[in-house]
Write a structure and sequence with these properties.
Number of strands: 6
Radius of gyration: 20 Å
Strand order of the largest sheet: 3-2-1-4-5-6
EC number: 2.7.7.1, 2.7.7.18
Oligomer: single chain
Structural class: alpha/beta
Distance between the termini: 52 Å
GO biological process, one term: NAD+ biosynthetic process
Enzyme class: transferase
Strand content: 5-15%
Shape: globular
Organism: Drosophila madeirensis (Fruit fly)
Bound molecules: adenosine-5'-triphosphate, beta-nicotinamide ribose monophosphate
Catalytic activity: beta-nicotinamide D-ribonucleotide + ATP + H(+) = diphosphate + NAD(+); nicotinate beta-D-ribonucleotide + ATP + H(+) = deamido-NAD(+) + diphosphate
Amino acid sequence: MSAFMEETKCLLPRIAFIACGCFSPPTPMHLRMFEIARDHFEMQGTHKVVGGIISPTHDSYAKKGLASSLDRCAMVKLAVQSSNWIRLSDWEVHQNQWMRTQSVLQYHQNFMNNYLNSAAGAGDAEPNGSLPGWLPFSLRERKDPVHLKLLCGADLLESFAVPGLWAEADIEDIVANHGLVVITRCGSNPEKFIFESDILTKYKRNITLITNWVPNEVSSTLVRRLLSRGQSVKYLIDDLVLEYIKRQRLFNVKSKYITDAVRPNHLIFNHAYTDNNKNAANSLIGEQNMDESDSPSPQLLQQATSRVFCCGDTSPRGPKLLRVGPGQAVQVITMQSDEKAESQAKKQKIAQVQL
Ligand SMILES: Nc1ncnc2c1ncn2[C@@H]1O[C@H](COP(=O)(O)OP(=O)(O)OP(=O)(O)O)[C@@H](O)[C@H]1O
Ligand SMILES: NC(=O)c1ccc[n+]([C@@H]2O[C@H](COP(=O)(O)O)[C@@H](O)[C@H]2O)c1
């Protein structure tokens, strides 16, 4: 690369991506999203991408098939081992309750701002004195700010329309102040979706739509279903993640997998993660071997009558009573949206579950 191009790259505004989701389990497409997004910005020559963060949602999100946060974090750690720029943030899972995505973005953005503004070496350290693992390495190479953008698939964008699931103020803050990077997914039409939303249209310049020319409809739901049927998921997920699932007997994995030779050496890394996160274990819902057909754990059932809102408190229609956690709303409401033919992408997911 010429010296001129190098110099120009140094001047480009810096961005990082954060993907919020369940990651139960993480699939290669979760990681591909980051690669596709980085390629896009680099090829456009408009920004320098300094890091990627995967932030698994809190256990109390309570979506069907959600393994414990300890297991999901361990699997994400294993999945990102092959990447030199995508990292796990376990901040969200260590909070006392489910966090809205806007708050997750805000926390990570503030942390990076404080870190950049603090004297070199001091940083805004974690309570134990060390910096969080999700912080991009090259952050302090320059002094200028790093803008954190929400990275998602088009189905997440379309979930903005699910009544009561997202607060309008949150959507506006995300698109106005952070920015959204959306990767196309089969069956979704994000351009039309943006056109039909006044808020999204208003901030269209902050939404980057990227066509994924090599689509792959692997999803965590499909992986869980195959596992629970004793079918192969090899080459659908990372080998290390698969070993972990077998070893921990997650997702109701059938005996064919359990009797396979398990290579414990591969999992040493994960033990280090779980050992270091004993606190997280306290907030766990318990050892879970769940798939689509599982019912909530006893603890969750106990909470079933408690009122858990996503954004319902501020909804003009009044608060919405959700059965267990915000994630349940996704299932309940996507069923309704299936009936109303609101979202093709969500319909596909539901169709998969009903097979
Ligand atoms: N195949 C895919 N193509 C594009 N984006 C994807 C794909 N799979 C997941 N994503 C995106 O990854 C993010 C995190 O996904 P999440 O784990 O919550 O859902 P998922 O993989 O669709 O799982 P589930 O099947 O349990 O709903 C979301 O933004 C989602 O849109
Ligand atoms: N109001 C909100 O901030 C809100 C609502 C629904 C889902 N989410 C997040 O979106 C991500 C993906 O959720 P789903 O897998 O249910 O689509 C999760 O991280 C979840 O916490 C946020």
